[in-house]
Amino acid sequence: ERVYVERPIFDAFVARLKAGAEALKIGEPNDPEANFGPLISHKHREKVLSYYQQAVDDGATVVTGGGVPEMPAHLAGGAWVQPTIWTGLADDSAVVTEEIFGPCCHIRPFDTEAEAIELANSLPYGLASAIWTENASRAHRVAGQIEAGIVWVNSWFLRDLRTAFGGSKQSGIGREGGVHSLEFYTELKNICVKL
Description:
Layout: E1 2-6, H1 10-23, H2 42-57, E2 61-64, E3 84-87, H3 94-97, E4 104-110, H4 113-120, E5 125-126, E6 128-131, H5 136-143, E7 150-153, E8 168-169
Parallel strand pairs: 1-4, 3-4, 6-7
Antiparallel strand pairs: 2-3, 5-8
Pfam family, one: Aldedh
Keywords: NAD, Oxidoreductase
GO molecular function, one term: oxidoreductase activity, acting on the aldehyde or oxo group of donors, NAD or NADP as acceptor
């Protein structure tokens, strides 16, 4: 939900992400043209919409979205929200620091690699991160410093199920996937005998 972009490409990036978000086709999962569905429940939608309002109250620039899309009558009762992008929020805004779990993001420019790493690690959460760069050395250097359970480089949500997955900090403990999944099906027992 937080996107950090190098300042020289910031405006172009925001424009392209806006175009991508607005090109999403909202609809039912069985609609072959749809590529964006509803949230899981109305309760979750209200939580997400409360953050949309909080962003506005905190002075965000709404790049796109920010509300509930108009849907055909037979879909109007669903938990629909618009994909939403903001800029201009302070780093301590609740919209930036809390996990919303909605289709939204705040985009902020950065000037140095060290600043980007500091911003990425500034929260008590660390489930996943992605680094997009044409510089392989930078990708390896930065990925090693990001405090997250998984760091994708030039990809997103790509994972071999045999590899470990899990969060860092307050995003969870332990790992699942591959041999790590055996722990879910194993009950360890400690038998302590004094001789």
